[in-house]
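I'll show a typical protein example:
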Amino acid sequence: MAYRAAVVGCGLIGSEFSDTTTMPGIWSHAAAYANCPDTQLVSVCDPDKSRLKQCATRWNVVAQFTDLATMLDEQRPEIVSICTPDATHYPLIRLALEHPGVRAVLAEKPIAVNLDQAGKLASLAAKVNKILAVNYSRRFATGFCELKVMLERGDLGSIQAVSGFFTKGTLHNGSHWFDLARFLLGPVRRVTGIDRLREPGDDPTLDVILEFASGAAGYLHGCDAGAYDLFEMDIVASAGRVRIVEEGLKIKLYRVESSPFGAGHKHLADPGEIDPGLSTALSEAIADIVRCLRKQGTPRCSADDARQALAIGLAALRSAREGQSVWLKDFR
């Protein structure tokens, strides 16, 4: 029997990416539920009535709500996606977890806007024995999982350094980069934030220096989203290199070979590629929740994973304000 599912927030990631993108694949929560044989999208919720109606019509959903509490009481979905603005994540995730009918929540990133909120949500999910997963999508994408196995196996040797580029906020989009770095390279122990762009607001796009527990160094460059969107990561290892480019839609692999210059020199050869699998990442996220519900498993991106990514971003913001590095073990 299919699990009853609901989407809260009918914007881009909730629904509209499915209509705006020209790329094949599943790019919204609503599409993922509608295309999963183990779920049925039974209701949608958004305070914007025009957006709500458009989403409901697009996915042939009769039950439409502008209030989450009312939707939970009347429709009793078992799985709820929270796809709303960042500042609303904590109260809405909490409300969903506390409802007796809900068994699992899939939240968009960041999980919350501070560590206290993130910790409370993780504790609540454990207390009520419910699944709380966060959509750091690359953890669910098959190609990134394959790359993680390669790096852990030592196929590219020891990691020397990682660098990258991003736009649209240290917490909002930067946390995607931090989570991917942790996923592929392991824990971060020290963070330095540099406010080079001087963007206004509570979530400026910083440059961030990372020191990993392994000893590898990382440097993330913040860029102006007014020019174009950017998300890239470059991992330099002793026996090869990985470049994640084109918004993460391509993973290029380079291997060390003898240089044509000879004399014992070596260079990085022309790259091969791994299909990142981002076009099915949301489908994989829903399938992962179904697996957890049936087997009482742990989600591939847990509340604790999301809290760690949030901690790196918040540490970078504090570092930029105070002008000194932040050790994550001391960060609260």
The chain has a mean pLDDT of 95. The longest strand covers residues 250-258. The radius of gyration is 21 Å.
